[in-house]
Amino acid sequence: MQTSSDRHEYPAHWEADVVLRDGGTARVRPITVDDAERLVSFYEQVSDESKYYRFFAPYPRLSAKDVHRFTHHDFVDRVGLAATIGGEFIATVRYDRIGAGGTPASAPADEAEVAFLVQDAHQGRGVASALLEHVAAVARERGIRRFAAEVLPANTKMIKVFMDAGYTQKRSFEDGVVRLEFDLEPTDRSLAVQYAREHRAEARSVQRLLQPGSVAVIGTGRTPGGVGRSILGNIRDAGYTGRLYAVNRALPEAQKELDGVPARRSVREIGGPVDLAVVTVPAEHVPEVVTECGEHGVQGLVVISAGYADSGPEGRERQRALVRHARTYGMRIIGPNAFGIINSSPQVRLNASLAPEMPRPGRIGLFAQSGAIGIALLSRLHRRGGGVTGVTGVSTFVSSGNRADVSGNDVLQYWYDDPETDVALMYLESIGNPRKFTRLARRTAAVKPLVVVQGARHGGVAPQGHAVRATRLPHATVSALLRQAGVIRVDTITDLVDAGLLLARQPLPAGPRVAILGNSESLGLLTYDVCLSEGLRPHSPLDLTTAASADDFHAALSRALADDTCDAVVVTAIPTVGEGSAGDAALATALRSAAAAEPGKPVLVVHVELGGLAEALSAATSTAPQATASTAPRAASSTREEPRSAAPAQRLPSAEASEGTHLIPAYPAAERAVRALAQAVAYAQWRRDAADPGKVPEYEDIDEKGAAGLIAGHLARGQGLTLGTQETCDLLGRYGIHVHRALPAPTPDDAVAAARTIGYPVALKATAPHLRHRADLGGVRLDLADEEQLRRAYAELTELFGKPQELRPVVQGMAPRGVDTVVRAVIDPAAGAVLSFGLAGAATQLLGDMAHRLIPVTDREATSLIRSIRTAPLLFGWRGSAPVDSSALEELLLRVSRLVDDHPEVVAVTLEPVVVAPRGLSVLGASVRLAPPPARDDLGPRTLPAY
Length: 947
Hints:
By secondary structure, the protein is α/β, with parallel strands linked by helices.
């Protein structure tokens, strides 16, 4: 039992699970007085050399005084952390606060000495780097700003740990000892190092699950049938290249084989190592299985068993215990309630799932939180006919079930480096860490397409079994933020597969210009209309007539692909009477031949009941994207080039040409083909824009320090408050945001006095909550030129809406005429800081026409933000009106972004209305809410989600 030590209660929030460099996990926790025996046992397993490096002298054993010192901490000035596996120490770190002379000290001293000791068997796993992140976070929490460490020159591993951490540091050499001093404030480099380590560790942890050298299926029934026996058969029948074992405690002692697979009663009886265990026993027997696997050194678990958080509160606690139990032994879990995993690589051939058939090898990675949707995805991609027809291959498939441990974020980390995966398709029912997912998605989308469909969008609650943090953002806002990160957001499984097939088989289009050709005028016109609806720029359809031969199609497609005014081609085809499969094969050959000669532009086929053609078009088992030739001669090339806006097309990474084959996706409906093409066009544009994301500008008139002082003073009055009018104006003014002056008018005489102060003409506005921003209700009177008009308007307002105390009227100077807009910023606990923009009034309130960007916003993002709303033409001279000052509007957005980014205590800002005129703008209303900011786990040390 862990207890408190000298001065402070045990800091349970310092406990965390971390993924190490090799993909295993360890638990980091504070060292307490109860750890004396563990510490002694740990020290006995450390080599004499490592002990020498730690204490600068031979130190074979710890004295009783040492043990007391290293286990008794006050958790403020003296702190010790341990990394544990199986409950035993594998590494320790401690710091001691010191004063100017290096002697023990207390606050306000802000420097501490730090020292590590890592068991030799666990050196090289990144344990010290993980401990440094955690002890640095603890030190910052306790007011320590700088670490000092003394290291022997020969201890190069520890010197490297400190030097590679990315902190601002100073290095000196004196008396034969290297002294390192470094600030603990996170820097851009330290965060980059942390993210890179996180990526390597999490990718490796998934790799260990998907590329095991040996697999044990635990819970294989003695009689045919059942989940365990089925999965065992699926692994065997897929031709798994590693060692496979069947495990069932009920097997007779004499039975050593099951279905031709070595069989054992327990994992402990398996002579060699087991990398992956597939667990299918009932939930009540899983803890015993986890213990056996952990003691045997199993690296990961796929838990098919149900009866966890999917079954109610009792099951949810059982799930938490499962994760804690597995992590104790350094194991990661897919599931529970999982459908399974698949790796189609010829070097692995693992089908550890309930899917009876192994998908063909290909370039598409699949992730599904739902087993049912996973079945649908595999079926849709595997079969011929029905949906998008043709042969399609899968690289890897993961069904996470309740997603208790391994999540979509982990799989994204793996796919980013996986040379076998060119396109990632994900079905998500919840996003446990939107901030991290957005970061990983942006990085992944920069090198390979990521297509996402999200289920349970409108249910209001997360699916059973999914632990997710609450978000106040509407689904439409979350979708917009994902699109900003380069995610291709689609609404249905059909759209997911349609987009995936195009992106896996064809190059990215260089623009929205589409050529349409085919043997049906009606189908061509329908395709043309759909292109316009999807925002593409189609050429007039070319009708080849129903008499067109395969050679006619070849010639027309070749001309279209050679046309510099065309970025993509949609071919429409209807059956030719009497030709049958021979005609289909000839047409498919003609189309593939023409497309192969010009591989830089995508080609899609819309077919009507042409199963033979669709099959012929896709007559290859690979879905590898085709190489792009940017210049003549038009031959496939393996050279990778960065996309340019003027280039014929962008290529996906790993765009290796199939040997003599150019795969063309075929669609049974024009709208499906064009929708997939529109997604590819938008993604290609995002790739070009992402190459130059812009910058966050600096403004010399911003008073960041002054704003911080105001915020600290306001928060001293309370934990969360909405600022008053003058307080809001003062704070915004520190960032160069000036609110049009408004004076309260509780009586007609006060209104007249306010108007004299401001100067006529003025506006009289009711600011009561039910009337604010509701000009349609008559709560605003504009262009009041003199006292008589002002008094008359005041009387009308009070007669219509009630007493002045209820209306809260104000007098404000008239602003130049323009377009009323609204600017908002909010810090969401899950997604982070979000900047939103739209037109004020019905466009925003009724139609939800708002655009969103994650903060901090760059200058390019501000430019795109105001052009992203559907009503944007009203800002740029619609129907002959004067265009507004978009530069002033963009600057306002950037200043609001800077305010919220610099001061996370500003949890909400609303500027409404912002009247944007042809020259300049006027902020007529503003509100600011302050509160302690939500905790940001992306700035802290690496951790796995807590259970």
